[in-house]
Amino acid sequence: MTGTVGYRGHVLPGQVRTLPRAYYTSESLYEEEAERIFARRWVCVGRAEQVARPGDYFLADVAGESLIVVRDREGRHAFFNVCRHRGTRLCEQPSGRLAGTIQCPYHGWTYGLDGRLLGAPHMGDEGFDKAEFPLHEAALDAWDGFLFANLQPHPPALEAALAPLAGKFGAWRLGELRALRRVEYDVRANWKLFFQNFSECYHCPRIHPELTRLSDFRSGANDLVDGPILGGYMTIDPPGDSLTLSGRAACPQPVGPLDRDDLRRVYYYSVFPNLFLTLLPDYAMWHTLWPLATDRTRVVCEWLFPAEAGAPAGPEDAIAFWDRTNRQDWHVCELAQQGVSSRAYTPGPYAVQESLLAAFDRELLTALGRTDP
C-alpha cells in the first residue's frame, strides 16, 4: 500500500506492463508455482505461541504437503503428516495438544514428539529396526515470533532469506505480542492478486474511505523496492492516533520504545511468497496466503497486541477497521480475477504508484526461472 518510488528510478507508465492472463488462470503455471516457489522458499506457517508447550501442535499445508508443527521438550519441529508404514495421514484436527506421542490411526505405529518411531505393533525384531523409520522432517525456523517452514532437504538459512528485515522491527517486540483474533477468508482470486493489491494504495481513495480518512494514499515512501521483501511506510494523519474505526489508539501505550517518527507511521511489508506484515504504533497485523486453486486463495489474518492491550479504543476497534478493509480488498481482488480471466484481457501499463507490483513480478519470474513472461 506504500508510496511513490518509481521502477528503478524510471517512469513506469507505458513501459512496464502487468502479467499475461495465463499467470492467473493456467493450471500448469499454478502447479509450477507450487513446486518451484512454495516447495522451495521459506513459507510462513504460524506463530511460536501456537506451540508454546510440549505437545502443542498445528497443521500447515505447504505446496500440497501437510506438515505437523509440534513442540517437544527440546524445541519445535515440522514433520510431514505421513506415517512411515503405509503413508496414512497421522493428524486430522487442525490444531491441538498431543499426549506425548503421535500415533497412526490405521495400524498404531507410534512416534515421539521428536519424530522417532517408538512402537510398531507386530513388526517383530528380526530385520526390522525402528531407528530406520522416523518421521520425515521439514526445516523449521523462527523470526521475531513467526515460524517458517521449508520443504527443501537443505534450504538456505532463514536468517539469510530475511536479511533485509534484520533488526528492522526490534522496537515493536513482535515476539512478545499475542494474537487476540484470527479471521480466515476464502476468496475467489489468484494468490498473486493479493500481493499486487497489498503493494499499492493507488486504489485506496476509491475502495477504502475509512483508511484514506486516516492515512493519505500519497504519503510515505518505500525502502525495500526489489527482491523477495518489498514495502515501506505511510503516515497516520492527525487527529488520528492509529488505524481504527474511531481513529483513537487501540492500546494505551505503544508496543515498544518507538521513535517519534514511528509513532505516526504504519509499515507495510510483503514477504514472498505468502506473508504480509502491517506494523502500527500500538499493534500489528499479519496475513498469510494459501493458494487453493488458480482462482481461489485462503487468507488468514491475525491481530497482535501487547499482553496488556486495552483502552482507550481497545483491540476490537482495530480489528473491525481491518476486517472491513480486508473485505473491501478481497472484493476488488475477486473483480480483478474475473477480469483477467477474460479473453479480452491484455497486459496493461503500471502506474508510478505501482512500482512494487513490477518488483513483485520480477521476483515471481526469477523464482520460476524466467527472464520475461
CATH class of the largest domain: Alpha Beta
Largest sheet: 7 strands, antiparallel
CATH domain topology of the largest domain: Naphthalene 1,2-dioxygenase Alpha Subunit, Chain A, domain 1
Approximate shape: globular
Our count of helices gives: 8
> On the 0-100 scale, what is the average pLDDT?
93
The end-to-end distance, rounded to whole angstroms, is 24 Å
Number of strands: 17
Strand content: 25-35%
Helix residue percentage: 10-25%
Q: How many structural domains can be distinguished in the coordinates? A: 2
Strand order, largest beta sheet:
1-10-9-4-3-2-5
Which CATH-level-2 architecture of the largest domain? Alpha-Beta Complex
The class by helix and strand makeup works out as alpha+beta
Strand and helix order: HHEEEEEEEEEEHEHHHEEEEEEHH
Residue stretches low in confidence (pLDDT < 50, at least 5 long) are 1-11
What is the CATH homologous superfamily assignment of the largest domain? Naphthalene 1,2-dioxygenase Alpha Subunit, Chain A, domain 1
Gyration radius from CA atoms, angstroms: 22 Å
Give your account of this protein's structure.
The chain has 373 residues and is an alpha+beta fold. It folds into two domains: 22-40 and 167-367, Naphthalene 1,2-dioxygenase Alpha Subunit, Chain A, domain 1; 43-160, Rieske Iron-sulfur Protein (3-layer Sandwich), CATH 2.102.10.10. The protein has eight helices and 17 strands. It has helices at 22-25, 27-38, 158-161, 191-198, 204-207, 209-214, 315-340, 355-367, and strands at 43-47, 56-62, 65-71, 76-80, 95-97, 101-103, 110-112, 117-119, 137-143, 146-150, 178-187, 221-224, 229-235, 265-271, 275-279, 284-293, 296-305. Strands 1-10-9-4-3-2-5 form a seven-stranded antiparallel sheet, with no helix packed on it. Strands 11-17-16-15-14-13-12 form a seven-stranded antiparallel sheet, with helices on one face. A three-stranded antiparallel sheet has the order 6-7-8, with no helix packed on it. Strand 14 (265-271) and strand 15 (275-279) form a beta hairpin. It is globular and about 75 Å long.
